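Predicting holo structure, heme C bound.
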Amino acid sequence: MFNRFTLVIFCAAVLGAALAWVLSAPKMLPEQAIAQFPAGDAAAGEMVFWAGGCASCHARPKADDEEKLKLAGGAEFDTPFGVFVAPNISPDDEAGLGNWSLGDFANAMIHGVRPDGAHYYPAFPYPSYNKMSHKDVANLWAFLQSLPKVAEPAPAHRVGFRSTFAAHLDYGNCCLFVTKWW
Ligand code: HEC
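Done. Tokens:
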């Protein structure tokens, strides 16, 4: 029966869902903030690269030495939501990030947002990088651009519809948004 109690529960659920949607909505850096990023220094960016463990996921699995600097992607992460695959983040125009701007990169690293405004899956551990300074982001970007281009695209993720929807809701940040607020 649709009595007053069920109505209150229904309204609370709708409000809760609306609040979760607003709190987890993708955010992007304003153009003005991006224009004020400092110039990047590739040598300093190399330190951020190794400290951030980027090669452990974005180099080809089992890559050694110099091969770790060829960021072809391909490492797979088998999760209950499906299999995620680390993408090619080399400076190749087609397979990698050759057409990206510093702003695209900064939005990915700081807000976990794709150039088209959608959220990344938390298989990309962007919540661990969102406290990075703008200087570190600019330096890291300069270093990535100095690396070899790899023309081979990484395989696509193998995930179901539910996970695709979840990425848009940013379920990772639903739990982690508190870290953005202090
Ligand atoms: C634990 C593995 C892991 C680590 C460590 C990692 N990434 Fe990723 N990264 C991923 C995965 C998986 C994705 C794909 C996410 C998606 O498609 O939603 C991704 C996506 C990205 C993207 C977006 C690429 C695109 O084509 O849209 C960029 C840029 C990126 N990572 C840069 C970095 C950098 C720089 C570092 C180091 C500071 C790093 N990642 C560390 C797993 C990782």
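The longest strand covers residues 76-79.
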